[in-house]
Structures are given as C-alpha cells and as structure tokens.
Fold:
Amino acid sequence: MDAAQIRSLRPRLKSFLKKFDDCFLRSDTRAHLRTYMCGQLSDLPRKNCEPIADAVQMPPRTLQQFLNLLDWNHGLMRAKLQKLVAREHASSHSVGIIDETGCPKKGEKTPGVRLQWCGVLGKKENCVVTVHLAYAVNDFHCLLDSELFLPESWSNDRPRCQAAHIPDDMTHRTKPQIALELYDRARSNGVVFQWLTFDELYGHNREFLAALRQRQQKYVAEVPVTFTGWVQSPRVTHRTYRKCLHYGSVRKTPRCVQGTPLPQSVREHLRSSPELRDQPWQKFRIKDGEKGPQVWEAKHVWFFPQDGHELPLEPAHLIVARNVFEPEQIKFFIAHAPRETPLTVLLWVAFARWRVERCFEDQKTELGFDHFEGRSYVGLMRHQIITALTHLFLSRVHQQWREKKSGADGLSVADSLVGLGSNLVSSGSGGPAASHADSPDHYQHPRS
Structure:
C-alpha cells in the first residue's frame, strides 16, 4: 500500500482504532499503536520497530518499549477484537479454522525458538511456532487469536524462560491443548462457530476431538490414514463374565462382544469394506483457483471411531476425498455433525482451511507478521495481536469495498449449498458433472 492509499484510509483507521482506546491508560502510548499499524500498512520492505520508527523520524527504542515494556492491556485488545468479530461478523455459516505456522529465526534468544518443523520451509529449521484460530464467513476472514508453542526444552529451562519474560506458570502444552484454549477464549468473548476444521495434527488427537464433542461443537477433522474404527456398529456388552478355568478372572466391561470384527484403519476400510470400496465416487468442484478449478471426488459413510480402548465412540461421518487430477492424493475426514448433513456441506467445511493459510500469507507478505526481532514473549504476543488487528481492519475495508462495488445480494456460499442444493457444472473432461462444494471467492489462495 502506498502513502496515498494510506492517507485515504486514515479517517477509517482513526474510527476503527477508537474501539480500542480503553486498552491504553496514556494517550502517548495509544498513539504508538497507530504508528505501528501505519507502518505495517506501508510499503516498507521490513516492518519491525526500527524501520517503522525511522520512517516517522522516531527513535526505534520508543516502539521497542511500546511492544515490550510500556503498560497497556494487549489481552483486552484481543478480547475486544474477538467481540467485534462476534458482534459485526456473526453468521450461521461461520467456520473456525485451527492451524499453526512457523517463522524462521536465527540465534537462541527469540522466545520458543528451536530446531523444529517449519511449514513455510517444508523442513525442520530453527524457528518459532505459534498456534492460531481463524474465523471465516463468505468472503471475510481474519485471525482471532494466537499463542506460542513452548517446546519442552524451553519449558524445562526456567532461567531461559525468565530471560525471555515467559510467565512462570506457562509450561509446555501440546498444540491441540493450545488450540482448545484459543477456542474456549473466543467462545467466552461471544464468537460462535457453526463449524470448526483443522488438519490431521489435531484430528488424530482423540482427547481434543472428545473435548469438542463435549462442547457440542460441530467439526470436520482431517485424520491420518491410520485412524481406526468400524463402518458397522459393533455390539457392546456391559455384562461381567467370569472364566471358569481361572477363578476370579473377570473380563473388562464394557467390551465388544465375542466375534465382533476388529477395528480397521480408514485406509483399509477404503480398500476392503464394501460400504466404501464398492461406493461410486462423486465429483465436486471445490473452488476455482489461479491454476484452474480444484476438482475432488468423494465417498461418504457413517462411521464408528475407536476410542483407543477397543470400544466405539459415538458415530460420525467418514469422508474420503481424492484429487481428480492427482489420484494418489487422498484425504480422510471425520465429521461430528447430524447424520442428515449433506456431503456437499461437509466438503465445503473440510476444504475451508485455505482461509487460514491465506491469513498467514497476507500477514507475512504484507504486514510483517514474521519480521519480529525481539527477545520478549510479551513483545512477540503484542506484535501478533497488533498484526491481527491490522489484518482485521484491512479485511473489513476489503469487504466494504467489495459490497459497494458489486452490491450485496445476501446469498452466501453456504446459503447456496443448504438452501438451493447442489449446483452441477461440467467437469470439463467429458465425464460426469461435478457438484460445487464452494464458489469462487475474491480472495484466492495463491497456491490453489
């Protein structure tokens, strides 16, 4: 964004920032937020404290202290951001997306830095990993929250944590545990997710899935090929049974009755279970990207996941999706939703994860999300919250400009799916028609 564009947005930005005035006790501290956000919106090649401060002829230390030392309530800022989204972007078709991202860093001082998997590089690298919760509805999406993934090596080294200003009560937690904390925090601030979706790192964690079911949250989870269960309901007994040859030996209860088939992996069900193996594939055009349409074909059965103790959990949808243009690419999803939920809707949710990837892409390439160079946990979290706030401002401006340009007809993607049924279009190959599981958005994922 150039200087002229920023100037044109200044009245809107000023009005937007007034919503967060009470996060600051002092007006001069409050003014630093505007400076920082304007720097993120600018065309500066690097968007950390020093170049932003230099651009407005301010001592860099002033912004460094703003992030790390000055007294202002970034927790309240996060809560107000979430309440704003809950109040002004609520929808019966909202989707929450959980994902993590890594930012490569040199040295050993940045909070949480270590050699670990960095998705942006596709390999293990020295980086900082943060877990995020995104919100998407129609053509609007934003990040609601983030938290640092603290490796065990850091958690066990409390002097190192103290040097990075990591709170004493903050210890190592798994990424699914962090994700659940983010979800609960957003819900406490009024955000309602019609659906939640996430990749197999979270989908394979049965405790995480159980926690979402306890919260009555509908979700579509990608699961690994080793995820096990039954495609037919296994019989379970609660009757005790004493073996005559071994007096006093009692079989555990509840248990599957004798002769019940063993649970199989979802990959094996696709190969050998008639319910899936013999079911014809249905084609769906997921979305149109810069490289052309994404067309997947899917199969769908009612499924009984294993709880880890050879017992079935409550039934769920099992969806198998295969890329039409790359048939070796197969994904498996488990959906906790009413049985009558259309496959079209389940696929629409399952393939909504590009929204959080687009948030990461925009914030890293445009707003300096990964430009943080401090050594303080508080500074890192404040930087990410402010970046989320800047991105929210841009998302709202984009939505307003688009509605003004095209005229809102009130019909969302999910409306077309649920209210009007499948929209069939040609698959482009002379084959069967493909159902729309999504419609083209103004935002297109760059890797689509």
